[in-house]
Every structure is written in C-alpha cells, then in structure tokens.
C-alpha cells in the first residue's frame, strides 16, 4: 500500500496529464467533427457537474456565515471594503494591460492578411442587449424570484438573497438554529460531492482542450503567438508583482497562496472556468484561517466583480488591435478608452463571454473597428486559460485581505496549513 501511494499522482498532476493528452488527441484529430463533438460533450459534462454544486454551496455557506455574524452594519462594511478593493485592483490591471501593449507595440508587427476572422455575431448581439451601465447592474442584484435566479445561475442575486436570509435567521435566535444546522449539513454534503466530481477532472480537461485544439489546429496559433506570449507575461507580472506587493502590505506571501491553491489554479487554467474552482476556494479560504462568512461572501462576489485577468486582457487587446490597424491613439483617447472599459466591464458583469462583450462595447468609442476584435477571437480560449488563473488567485488574495482587515482571520491556522501544503510539494 505504501508503495502504491508513493506513485500516486496528485490532482494537479493528473489534470496536467489530462491537458497533455487532450492537446495530443486534438492535434491528431484536427477538424474531425465526431471527435470534437465527443470531446466537447465530455468537457461540458464536467463543467455541468461542478456548476450543479456551486450555487447550493454558495447559498448554504453564505447563509450560515451571515447568520453567525448576525450584524447588518458589519456586513455592509465588508461589502463596501470588498467592492473598493476590487475596483482598485481591476483599475490597476487595466492600466498595466494598456501600458504593456503600448510599450511592446506588437500589434504593428502583425500581418492582417494572415489572420482568419472568427464569427463574433453572438457577442455583438450580447453587447447590444446586455446591461450597459452600473445602475442597471445594481438593480439586477435584487431578485424578483430567487428560484428564477437560481435557475439562470445569476450569482449576485443569490448572494444578495442569501445575505438577507442569513440576517433574518440571526434575528430570530434559537428558532433559526434548526435551519442553520440543516444548511451546515447541506454545505458539508455539497463539498463531499465536489470531492467526488474532482476525480473526473482530468477527463473533463482532456475533453475541453482536445476540442479546442481540434477546432483551431496548432498552426493557427502562429500568427498571434506574440500576442499570446505578451498576455501570459503580463499576467505573470501582475500575479508576482502587483498581487505580491498587495499581499505583503497585509502580511501575506503570494508564494504561500500559490502553493496552497496550486491544484485549483491548474484546474482553472485547464478548464478556463473560474466557476469550477469556487467550491474548493471557499473551502481553502477557511483552511487558511479566514472565517467562513468572509470567504462565502467575497469569493462569489469576486466571481463577478474581481476579474483582474479579464481586465489585463481587455487593456492588451484593445491597444493591440488598434496597432494592427495602424491606428494611433493619443493619450486623451487612451484615457477615454480606460474609463469606458472600466465602466463597461461593470455594466457587463456576469454576462456570458463578458471579456469579448466589453471589448466590442468599448473599442468603437475611440475609432477602433469592432470587426478587428474578430481577428483575435480564435485564440480567446487559450488566453482565457491564463486570465482565469489571475482571476482565481486574485479572489483568494482578496479573501485573505478582507478577512484580516475585519479581524476574522486566524494566523496560527493559516501558518499551519501553509506549512502542511509545503510538505506535500
């Protein structure tokens, strides 16, 4: 038994193996529609399995956490802190993305005749019909029917309802204890199911990446390889430097966070989905010493608002496309673009394909052809893998910082768990 365990692969390594197998199969079955269909179904099934448990975990964990907190004023303070933190970090991400793209000037090196345009009609339609301002987003937070919000998977209305329900439970005292006990059992059950689902993660990852490579082909990546490299280099810089410095200001180490959530980051990278990591992130934040009420609130909210990776990508892509068309943007035009991107990204919060929708709704304001976005749509999935990693680690950093600022953090528990995870490396 000991010999078997010594050779047992961790979840992270299993997922990476699934990624490699998926890439190989995708290249082997390039443009094979039967393979693409089967791989897509396998990948989508895994995503659906995780999506199945996300909202029950968010609701049960958040309701219990808020009920135990039992303080409306404290909840309001946490909410304001969280949103301010998200806004500051996402603004920095936008600026870094635009700055790097300006310095590198890689767009001018691209030959537009070598690029194939991808159909973006669905994104254009979404850009026209989605929320276009912050006010409409704030209004959409209040659900008219909580079951409808659950059915559509709208995270913010669920968070809002759960917070109110938790406060209501706290206000009725002992009468609400039976509901709290029930929801604690629901939460524990959902986390157990999540553990079971993660056993098929390598298969799901192989399906998702296999279908992507089979559709695109490896040769299609060459014309935009410089953009892909620039995007990943910028994201790595943001994690190590910006999130690193932010963590140090509050007494944390970004390396510790990367070690603790490495499996979740690998999962986020290979699936290009933040949602699949949400249950495990909430669990990990508790193991890192953050009170469950903080993690249950900050992480789901960050799933909608704290999208640093997406902000970096949007800043990079907007300037890159302008350069590809040899459009010179003055400082005032770029400042206008920054403001529009910031506002539009909040207005599109929670929209499917939000990164692309934000770009389509923003670039036209400074004269960049919206049709140019179609030129980079083909590699969106590959860049999305990187920006999802930034979003996930950004949410973990935010949870630790908000928890510590509210004195809802246990340093001893944090240090012990970090040390435990270090020994597993």
Description of the molecule:
There is one protein chain. With 425 residues, the protein is an all-alpha fold. It has one domain (7-423): Sodium:dicarboxylate symporter (Proton glutamate symport protein). 75% of the residues lie in helices and 0% in strands. The protein has helices at residues 2-6, 11-28, 33-69, 72-104, 121-129, 134-140, 146-152, 155-171, 177-197, 201-216, 225-249, 254-260, 262-271, 278-287, 292-305, 308-324, 331-347, 354-362, 380-405, 411-423. It comes from Ligilactobacillus ubinensis.
Fold topology:
Layout: H1 2-6, H2 11-28, H3 33-69, H4 72-104, H5 121-129, H6 134-140, H7 146-152, H8 155-171, H9 177-197, H10 201-216, H11 225-249, H12 254-260, H13 262-271, H14 278-287, H15 292-305, H16 308-324, H17 331-347, H18 354-362, H19 380-405, H20 411-423
């Amino acid at each position: 038994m000991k010999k078997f365990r010594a050779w047992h692969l961790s979840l992270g390594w299993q997922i990476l193996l699934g990624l490699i197998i998926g890439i190989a199969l995708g290249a082997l079955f390039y443009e094979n529609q039967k393979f693409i269909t089967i791989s897509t179904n396998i990948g989508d099934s895994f995503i659906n399995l995780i999506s199945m448990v996300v909202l029950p975990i968010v609701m049960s964990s958040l309701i219990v956490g808020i009920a135990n907190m039992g303080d409306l004023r404290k909840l309001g303070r946490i909410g304001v802190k969280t949103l301010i933190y998200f806004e500051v970090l996402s603004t920095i991400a936008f600026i870094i993305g635009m700055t790097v793209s300006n310095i590198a000037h890689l767009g001018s090196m691209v030959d537009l005749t070598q690029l194939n345009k991808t159909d973006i009609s669905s994104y254009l339609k979404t850009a026209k019909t989605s929320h276009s301002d912050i006010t409409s987003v704030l209004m959409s937070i209040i659900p008219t029917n909580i079951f409808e919000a659950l059915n559509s998977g709208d995270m913010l209305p669920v968070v809002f309802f759960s917070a109110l329900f938790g406060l209501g439970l706290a206000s009725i005292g002992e009468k609400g204890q039976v509901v709290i006990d029930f929801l604690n059992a629901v939460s524990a059950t959902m986390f157990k199911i999540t553990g079971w689902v993660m056993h098929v993660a390598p298969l799901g990852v192989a399906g998702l990446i296999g279908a992507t490579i089979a559709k695109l082909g490896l040769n299609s990546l060459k014309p935009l390889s410089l953009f892909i490299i620039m995007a990943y280099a910028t994201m790595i810089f943001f994690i190590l430097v910006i999130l690193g410095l932010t963590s140090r200001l509050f007494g944390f180490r970004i390396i510790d966070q990367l070690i603790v959530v490495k499996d979740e980051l690998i999962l986020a990278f290979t699936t290009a989905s933040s949602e699949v990591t949400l249950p495990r992130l909430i669990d990990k934040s508790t193991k890192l010493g953050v009170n469950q009420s903080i993690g249950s609130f900050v992480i789901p909210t960050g799933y909608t608002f704290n999208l640093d990776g997406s902000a970096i990508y949007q800043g990079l892509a907007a300037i890159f496309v302008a350069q590809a068309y040899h459009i010179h943007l003055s400082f005032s035009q770029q400042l206008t673009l920054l403001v529009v991107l910031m506002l539009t990204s909040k207005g599109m919060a929670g929209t499917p394909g939000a990164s692309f929708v934000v770009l389509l709704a923003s670039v036209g304001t400074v004269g960049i052809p919206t049709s140019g976005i179609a030129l980079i749509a083909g590699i969106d999935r590959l860049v999305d893998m990187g920006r999802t990693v930034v979003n996930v680690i950004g949410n973990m950093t935010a949870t630790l910082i908000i928890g510590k600022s509210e004195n809802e953090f246990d340093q001893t528990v944090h240090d012990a768990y970090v040390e435990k995870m270090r020994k597993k490396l």
